[in-house]
Design a protein that fits this description.
The chain has 187 residues and is mainly beta. It has two helices and ten strands, in the order E-E-E-E-E-H-E-H-E-E-E-E. A six-stranded mixed beta sheet has the order 3-4-5-6-8-7, with no helix packed on it. Strands 1-2 form a two-stranded antiparallel sheet. Strands 9-10 form a two-stranded antiparallel ribbon. The termini are far apart. Keywords: Endonuclease, Hydrolase, Nuclease. This is Putative Endonuclease-reverse transcriptase-containing protein 7.
Length: 187
């Protein structure tokens, strides 16, 4: 699809950087019936594309991020991943990061080292990939991180049919299974 064509899916609200110069076409699609508000994404590095949407839940909210980091750009994900210490977050995207810890079939690059350091330092964030390749050349470049408290209600899978040079991934969060937030102490 050329960049001058608008992608539309009836019944869904689209959030994308397609109208920005040098955009790579990443987008978030949410059902139109889901209460939400657009969020100004944190800076993830010069030339790194990021979109964010806050989904309003019954007792909380969830911030959904989509990231595309071109191979020639540097990732600055510290602020992004530490956001999980303050609120529920799902972060997905093509990070072009390589490290044996997150992809056993690859050698390390600077962005992979940066991500693994952050995962070690920020225990409130968990990588939920299963280890399945997300790229047709068998590598894992696409990662999905969630706030650690969401891990029990998260399911991640690769769709082997929806593909370009990357396979589509699906993340399902069964929020109804999440225990309610703790009550404040009595006054």
């Amino acid at each position: 699809m050329s960049k001058d064509k608008q992608f539309r899916l009836p019944g869904y609200q689209q959030y994308s950087a397609a109208e920005r110069p040098n955009s790579h076409g990443s987008m978030i699609l949410l059902r139109a019936t889901i209460p939400r508000s657009e969020v100004e994404p944190v800076h993830c590095g010069d030339g790194v594309e990021a979109q964010a949407v806050r989904i309003h839940l019954a007792n909380d909210s969830l911030v959904v991020y989509i990231i595309y980091k071109p191979p020639t750009k540097r990732l600055e994900a510290g602020e992004l991943l530490t956001q999980a210490t303050q609120e529920l977050v799902l972060i997905a995207g093509d990070f072009n990061a390589h490290h044996p810890t997150i992809n056993p079939t690859t050698t390390m690059n600077q962005d992979g080292h940066h991500l693994v350091e952050l995962l070690t330092d920020v225990s409130e964030k968990t990588l939920i990939n299963t280890g399945e390749p997300t790229h047709i050349l068998r590598g894992a470049l696409d990662f999905t991180f969630v706030s650690t408290e969401l891990v029990p209600v998260a399911q991640w899978e690769v769709d082997g049919e929806l593909t370009s040079d990357h396979f589509a991934t699906t993340t399902t969060l069964r929020m109804e299974l999440l225990p309610p937030p703790p009550r404040p102490p009595p006054r």
